[in-house]
Amino acid sequence: MNKSKQQTYSTIVSANPYKGDYYGGSLNTITSTLSPSFSKEQYTISFVNTKGFISTLIGISKNIPETDVYDVLENKVYEELALDMAVEYQIKYIEAVHKSTEGDRFFHVFVVDPLTLEQDFAKVVETIKYIDQIVPVPLLLKSLYVKELIDSSDVHCFIYFQENDAFFTIYNEQEFIYAKSLKFSLKQMHERFCELLGEQIDLFAFEKMLSEEGLNTSNPNYQKNLIKLFGEIFLHISDVITYAKRAYEIKKFDEIYIGTSSGKVLGLDEYAQTYLGLKATPFDFNYGFNTNGQKVDQIHQLMHLYGQLEKNERYECNFTIFHRPPPFAKRDSGKLILVGAASLAAALLYPSVYWGLSYIEEFRHAMLTKEYEQVHSEKINRESIVNLKLANKKAAQVLLDEQKNAYKQKQDTLVKIHDKKVNYPMKAKIMADFTRSFNQYRVQLQTVSYAEDINDTKTFTFGLTSSSTQDITALLKHLTDIQRNQYDFHLELISYNEDQKAFLSELKAVIK
To answer: Are residues 321 and 244 in the same domain?
Structure first.
């Protein structure tokens, strides 16, 4: 704990609002706390996962005064992210120091819906009354560099799978660059694994299998479907890496740290290194905490590490709305009680004073009564004027609401028309493009179908036949190479039909 916190707080308590677990730390010891409670001597820290915030990079002129930076960023965020103007979002930012140009400054801006904070942290606040600091989870990684657990300034990628979320984060020259929520949390991995397996297993058993056996499980059927599952996961991660390189002008990643909240998964870093072609290392650091043999989630240890940093060493990006109460003498109720106590003491010490004051108060009462009659007459006149203006305002509001409703109906119609024109796939052109590729690789099209689900996912399904499996796989590689940005391709099985003396397969192309 840093000096400032040692002088004020005896412990740090970290809270995971999504899992509902707590860890207390003091004197570099961390232990699980099953029933945490309110205490003025403890410093409480928690985090917002990557699903809980929106982040974006905003540039503004260097000529803008420091006092106006927040207002300018707020206006640009509402405009660029098309946020609802009726909602007062929580907006925090950190400066992207390495991104600045001669005329502009750039900031990483984080946006959180206040309703998300109230809902996600309701149980935490009910238990421990306040939260001193709520940090976006990718910024906790800054402590790894400050404490020199990572001492290089290369481009690092961090991938961490939690029970309810999974995050992908990039740091360059020991500064935050980019963060994104990945599709596959541990719960989503479990659901997809059960779907591939064709049977249901317990989530706890799935996490235990990962932490104890890793990717080389002794069950052949589990092993086959685990490899298929992680193939899908790393295909998604590869797409994210490709986007990040292009968007942030990153030439290469020097190292990837990958891990899970269930613990170290044997073979995961080797699989990542083989699939992505990048140096991979387990997301498993020696933080220097005594855990008494307990397995402690890396995020809890990062929170304790972050809570020990000096103010100038960490990112000041605190989303808490659950502040600790001020000292008694500074509260309104405290001031009232103190004033009341002083008045009572004065009354007991000087009772004779009140006899004299009573005569003074009678004179003041007579004067105030006269003044009241004048003020009351003026009040009646002004109330009549206000009521007339309110009636006019109500009539104008009715007319305005009618105009708004008419405008909204026209707007909705235009949006639907625009969506149809812009986003509706041109099936004839798409079919022609795919048919040329089929013919090029000597693959015949037997059937084709098109579907849209409730999530607006648009999928073409092609029934293919060929005399050679090599033609089908060559076709798939060709389509993946040239149309990766337009489609997600899925081809799970190639079968041989004795009657037709040909290989059959079903190719799905999901429009991105």
So the answer is: no
